[in-house]
Amino acid sequence: MKKYAVIVAGGSGSRMGAAVPKQFLLLKDKPVLWYTLETFLAAYEDMEVVLVVPAEHVEAAKGVVDATRAPERVRLAVGGNTRFDSVRKGLEMIGEESVVFVQDGVRCLTSGALVRRCYEQAVRLGSAIPVVSSKDSVRLVKGDGSIVVDRSLVKLVQTPQTFLSSILLPSYRVEYREEFTDEATVVEASGHAVHLVEGEVNNIKITTPLDMLVAERLLS
Q1: Cα–Cα distance between 198 and 182 in angstroms, integer?
Q2: Which of 69, 130, 193, 201 is the most buried (most CB within 10 A)?
Q3: What mean pLDDT is reported for the chain?
Q4: Is pLDDT at 195 greater than 80 in this prediction?
Q5: Helix axis angle, 112-125 to 32-43, nearest 10°
Q6: Do 183 and 161 form a contact (C-beta atoms < 8 A)?
């Protein structure tokens, strides 16, 4: 089945404290975004990528794309004001039945094995949401107090969140709501069940300077 990756790279880098958005920061002499693009382009030879970036960063994104192994398989889209809007902009460029991956542009350590695992489950079940178990104790704040939550019931959600296009595209034909924190919540709101798949501990999202240090060490 045809494969599309919608890679959303709209971060401002405010928590990073950097002069440039985090997706363009250099990690071992390559932009963070380059690693993300390479993972998807290498995972399948027929993978097409829609890279969604803010209008003011289109030229910088073109430079990153041109340095990848297959720039001809990458198209650019201009994002919106929210992640929901940006994902929808990317999905508008998909017009055929396919499996669609939605990926954070700054999850630069996602492995090809995870991409393929998500694809295979989405073909079978319609969706694949990568998650990892919480290693920390968890408490739920209620009023002035808090209660312990069984951490075995807690899963931390990652990307690529992966769906059949016949499920994902219609789900995004709605107005944005605050509870839409990721693609899974949008799909669930449309009446579809979502199916989890084992993620990867190393599949971190680059948000802070510490994340950059960890990513550099992992790449080494």
Answers
A1: 17
A2: 130
A3: 95
A4: yes
A5: 50
A6: yes
pLDDT at 189: 98
Q: What is the DSSP string of 76-108?
A: EEE--SSHHHHHHHHHTT--SSEEEEEEETT-T
What is the largest distance, in Å, between two alpha-carbon atoms of the chain? 56
CA–CA separation, 62 and 119 (whole Å): 27
Instruction: Report phi then psi at 6, rounded to 5.
Output: -95, 110
Q: What is the pLDDT of residues 200-214, one digit of tens each?
A: 999 999 999 999 999
pLDDT tens-place string over residues 19-42: 789 999 999 999 999 999 999 999
CATH superfamily of 2-219: Spore Coat Polysaccharide Biosynthesis Protein SpsA; Chain A (3.90.550.10)
DSSP per-residue codes, 12-68: --TTTT-SS-GGGSEETTEEHHHHHHHHHHHH-TTEEEEEEE-GGGHHHHHHHHHTS
Strand partners, 3: 47, 99
Does a cis peptide bond (omega within 30 degrees of 0) precede residue 209?
Answer: no
User: Distance between CA atoms of 189 and 25, rounded to whole angstroms?
Assistant: 35
- Contacting residues for 152 by C-beta, under 8 A, at least 6 apart: 133
Q: What's this model's pTM, rounded to 2 decimal places?
A: 0.95
Q: CB burial class (10 A; 0-12, 13-18, 19+) of residue 193? A: exposed
- The tokens of 38 are what? 């390479």
